[in-house]
Write a structure and sequence with these properties.
The chain is an alpha/beta fold. The protein has a single domain, classed as Alpha-Beta Barrel (TIM Barrel), CATH 3.20.20.80. A nine-stranded parallel β-sheet has the order 5-4-3-2-1-9-8-7-6, covered by helices on one side. Strands 10-11 form a two-stranded antiparallel ribbon. Strand 7, helix 11 and strand 8 form a beta-alpha-beta unit. Helix 12 runs parallel beside helix 13. It is globular and about 50 Å long.
Length: 366
């Protein structure tokens, strides 16, 4: 009898420890959460020394003093949040060190009043399977020439390699699932960018893993097209729209097209977030787009802060024979970024305007 009772107790303990995936937040819960937030306004942050994700998070590259000085610029602009891309391959090789560097970065951001939109995975980049060790140098005159996919094509397209990704996602979210310094979780960046990737099956699992942890912050992934675009991926778009707690999108186009995205996303009755925008030469500039986001209280993250190894002053390059054609001169109108490497503004007038919009244009040095 004693053995039976022990066996029953063990079974009950096992059942009690099992986790059923939480459900998607209701619209009411999502809107209640968002109503308690100040207008989230900030940038996609890549340290200026980082051309690849490995250079952001690898031990031999990590420079917290630079992160501190650059995030001070974001604070001075009146930003209250940043978007960070993580790097699974660094975690795989050094999980303890990666988690320590992540905590250091979050602490620095918190020091400057910045909450984090954490992004796990992306198919984007010229390097489809990331690697550690010495990293490639940027190609002169080419926009973001050495960015890497994460976790890479060989993992996304191989379900046998997903368990390590499950441990990665769950370890990060479990550590920060109730941390107020985390604004939200972007589980997959631009998942409709599927060239060579079987994204949807992997992304379904990523959402399931995150739901099993059940963080106090919302989950999302962005749409990047509307249904009348030639590049539209209906299946992936419908998945992220049906699974996200808050609706997010990317738009690098002008005000009329950005307004179309906003109106489309608003129909779902949930908070709306634009996690990538701002490409000046395409009409996505602060003067036209930021007032719309502020009026609608759309959470927004413009691309870039301090110009550096990503070379985002250059527009997307024209491609010939499968290769980008380098620019030979820096453009008069920068594509992304707000500050030069020496931390002087690309445009002092633009900086003034941003501070006016964030209500911090008082006692300014510019």
């Amino acid at each position: 009898m004693k053995r039976i009772l022990i066996a029953i107790s063990a079974l009950l303990a096992l059942v009690g420890c099992s986790v059923s995936p939480a459900e998607r937040w209701s619209a009411e819960k999502a809107n209640e959460w968002y109503a308690a937030q100040p207008w989230p306004v900030g940038c996609v942050y890549m340290p200026s020394y980082g051309g690849t994700p490995v250079e952001i998070w690898g031990k031999e590259f990590f420079r917290p003093e630079v992160v501190d000085s650059e995030l001070a610029l974001a604070e001075d602009l009146g930003f209250n949040c940043i978007r960070l891309f993580l790097c699974d391959i660094v975690w795989q090789e050094d999980p303890k060190g990666f988690m320590e560097r992540l905590e250091k970065t979050i602490s620095i951001a918190d020091k400057h009043g910045l909450r984090i939109l954490i992004t796990f995975f992306t198919n984007g980049g010229t390097i489809k399977n990331p690697y550690t060790g010495p990293q490639p140098q940027p190609v002169p005159g080419v926009h973001n020439s050495v960015w890497m996919a994460s976790p890479g094509k060989d993992i996304v397209n191989n379900p046998g390699k997903w368990p390590i990704m499950e441990r990665y996602v769950k370890q990060v979210i479990k550590k920060y699932r109730k941390d107020p310094r985390i604004l939200a979780w972007c589980l997959y960046n631009e998942p409709a960018n599927t060239k060579g990737f079987e994204t949807l099956p992997f992304m379904r699992e990523v959402f399931r893993w995150a739901r099993e942890v059940n963080p106090s912050q919302p989950l999302t992934a962005p749409i990047i097209t509307l249904s009348d675009w030639k590049s539209h991926n209906e299946e992936i778009s419908q998945f992220v729209l049906s699974e996200s707690d808050i609706i997010s999108f990317h738009c690098y186009k002008d005000l009329p097209e950005c307004r179309r995205f906003v109106e489309y996303c608003e129909q779902f009755g949930r908070p709306v977030l634009c996690s990538d925008w701002m490409a000046r030469s395409m009409g996505s500039d602060y003067y036209s787009i930021l007032p719309l986001f502020k009026e609608k209280k759309i959470a927004c993250f413009s691309y870039g802060l301090v110009n550096g190894k990503q070379q985002c002053q250059y527009p997307w390059n024209h491609v010939e024979n499968g290769e980008p054609v380098p620019f030979t001169e820096e453009p008069d109108v920068w594509f992304h970024d707000l500050f030069r490497p020496d931390h002087t503004p690309y445009s002092e007038e633009e900086i003034k305007f941003i501070k006016e919009m964030t209500r911090l244009y008082q006692n300014s040095q510019f």
